[in-house]
Amino acid sequence: MNSSFVLQTDRLLLEHFSFDDCEFILQLLNEPSFIENIGDKGVRDLDGARDYLRNGPMASYLANGFGLFRVSLRQSGACIGMCGLISRENLEDVDIGYGFLPEFWGQGYAIESARAVMDYARKQLGLQRIVAVVSPGNAPSVKLLEKLGMQHSGKIRMAENEPEIDFFA
Q1: CA gyration radius for the chain?
Q2: What does the longest C-alpha to C-alpha distance in the chain come to?
Q3: How confident is the prediction along the chain (169 residues), in pLDDT tens digits per residue?
Q4: What domains appear along the chain, each with residue ranges and CATH number?
Q5: Nearest alpha-carbon partner for 68 in 35, 30, 38, 33
Q6: Start-to-end Cα distance in the chain
Q7: In Å, what is the CA distance from 152 to each residue of 17, 144, 147?
């Protein structure tokens, strides 16, 4: 795995996650807004965070050559969120995903990182189509996806017993 992988924007660094990020992942995945809008990943301790990183982002880097990236501020190095690409069994196309600590909302970091990821997906990975899924009522995410040029393309279920969510392409 290439631990030196970095995407840069004016204000942000997007890098592969490492096990050094367990405390940050534990914090992010247990934010009430993350659980409400993205889902409860069941990560309750540092061992769970390590498993999440190993079986999620790190496994994706190896299997797909991409995954979720840790987003940090270039100036301070503070971890503020994650943004990247996800290959899901039940989606034909690669999905862009993101989540940020609430104290960093409303400052343009999500759109800045998402644009960098979309640019990387097209130019480096040659992906022609990126999709996104959004929980109903998550207006800030919908607005971000529309700024990226995506359009609402209907509703889908990620699993049989789950509620419908909005699909963007």
Answers
A1: 15
A2: 44
A3: 445 678 999 999 999 999 999 999 999 999 999 999 999 999 999 999 999 999 999 999 999 999 999 999 999 999 999 999 999 988 999 999 999 999 999 999 999 999 999 999 999 999 999 999 999 889 999 999 999 999 999 999 988 888 899 999 9
A4: 6-168 (3.40.630.30)
A5: 38
A6: 29
A7: 30, 12, 12
Q: Is 148 helix (H, G, I), strand (E, B) or coil?
A: coil
Place of tokens 């990182």: 113
Q: Is the pTM higher than 0.85?
A: yes
Give the bridge partners for 98, in sequence order. 83
Q: C-alpha angle with apex 92: 100 to 101, nearest 5 degrees?
A: 5
Residue ranges with strand state E in 11-144: 12-16, 68-73, 79-86, 94-100, 130-134
CB 27 within 8 A of CB 128: no
